[in-house]
Amino acid sequence: MPDTNIAIAILLGSFLFMIVIGQRIALAMGISAALTSWYLGLPLSTIVMNMVKGANVFVLQAVPFFILAGALMGAGGISDRLIVLSKALIGWMRGGLAMVNILASMFFGGISGSATADTSSIGSILIPMMRKEGYDADFATTVTMASSIQGLLVPPSHNFVIFAMAAGGVSVGRLFMAGLFPGIFLGIALMVYSYIVSRAKNYPKGAPFNLKLALVSTYHAAWGLMTVLIVVVGVVGGIFTATEAAAIAVLWAIFVTFVVYREIPVRAFYGVLTSTMKTLAIVMVLISAAGAFGFLVAYLRIPTVFAEAMLGLTSNRVVILVLINLLLLFLGTLTGMSALIVIMTPILLPIVTHFGMSPVHFGVVMILNLGIGLITPPVGGVLFIGSAISGLSIEKLSKAMVPFYVVMVGVLLAITFIAELVMFLPGLFY
Asked: Helix axis angle, 172-201 relative to 402-417, nearest 10°?
């Protein structure tokens, strides 16, 4: 009879080995699941069935629509208009372009839901602009990367859709509302730090506030921002499901991109669609492989074993939550967000709920943890994009990111231990 402990060692050991030697995470999960099922004497068809089952979830149908809507708006000129709007609203402050960067990222992130898309789009415009205005190159780049993480929290974020699936059917609408204030809170914290730096280094102010310019730029940007409004109001108000709202958002994005803004020709839609399909293929392969991996995690009762091990260390709620945050921060620096959401949610959710944290609250904490991992070496994807845009080395950017890490971890701890920061809006709307 197969030994459960040996099976767990095969599953986790082979997975970690594959990651260390540089294999893609989907392949690592698939191979480790196949090896473990072979040891347990399970038919290979069980693994295949669970791969299909992992991707065959209704709420996941919203993911391709969210990705496509964000790609359309990003390609169609929305980032330029959001930057103009942000400059009109807060560009007059000391260090105005840093504030513009953060606010524009908050707006754009709400549309794209992607930190990498945010950094690529906003950063390619604002990093050269900030350097030209006298900002240090490393500060211009790091503020861009740090502010991009807001987009993972501000609705509609497709990562919340993936978490809702992994958590067993948590309300997407509640998750959207739960992420809104933490996203704004993170933006405010980054603005406060950026203002302090700007005062210390005497970075320039922008043009004085102009009400007419603010109104005109709001009108032009509002067409794109309506994408967010359609999804949030539709889902939270119970008018649409998340999938229906995402599909409507795509139709609106097509209208705004090709009829209102008209910065790219209609034939460019094929390129946007192709890029979206490539991104979607990566996400869905990860989710499928994680479905098989997750089946074996549950079959071997790893969540129970893990929970008992952690509770054996301490029964102190604060210590447990700090340890979980440290674990997620560490894992987030090593691999992609989607896979970690699917793998770690079933393992950690029983532990946090045991200590009174709701699944919705934990979803926001997990997303911010993994978001910080995206801008942290050795594998932080956003860090590499920032390096490519700015021409600065990963080492220099990592060093310059340290104060931003402190700010972001401070926000993380606040939303971990002050539940009202996360749960106030869901409680108000639901």
From this structure: 140
At 386, the amino acid letter reads: G
Can you read off the two tokens belonging to residue 31? 């191979």
CA 80 remoteness from chain centre: 22
- Can you give the residue range of the structural domain that contains 122? 4-429
User: Which tokens is 40 given?
Assistant: 């347990």
SS3 of 205, please? Answer: strand
How far is 299 from 301, CA to CA, in rounded Å?
5
For residues 38 and 133, give the distance between their C-alpha atoms in angstroms, rounded to a whole number: 61
* pTM check: above 0.85: no
For residue 378 the two structure tokens come to 């050795």
| CA 352 – CA 350 distance, rounded (Å) | 6
Instruction: Identify residue 39 by its one-letter amino acid code.
Output: Y
Count the domains in the chain: 1
* 205: its two tokens: 């102010």
Degrees (nearest 5) of the Cα angle 157, 172, 161? 50
Give the chain's radius of gyration (CA, Å).
22
Distance CA 163, CA 416 (A): 17
State both tokens at 72. Answer: 């359309």
pLDDT at res. 281: 81
Place of tokens 């943890």: 369
What is the CA angle 285-288-289, rounded to 5? 85
Residue of 73, 121, 122 whose CA lies nearest to 258 = 73
Token couple for 75 = 């390609």
| Phi then psi dihedrals of residue 94, to 5 deg | -60, 130
What's the pLDDT tens digit per position in 1-42? 678 888 888 988 888 888 778 777 788 888 888 899 999 888
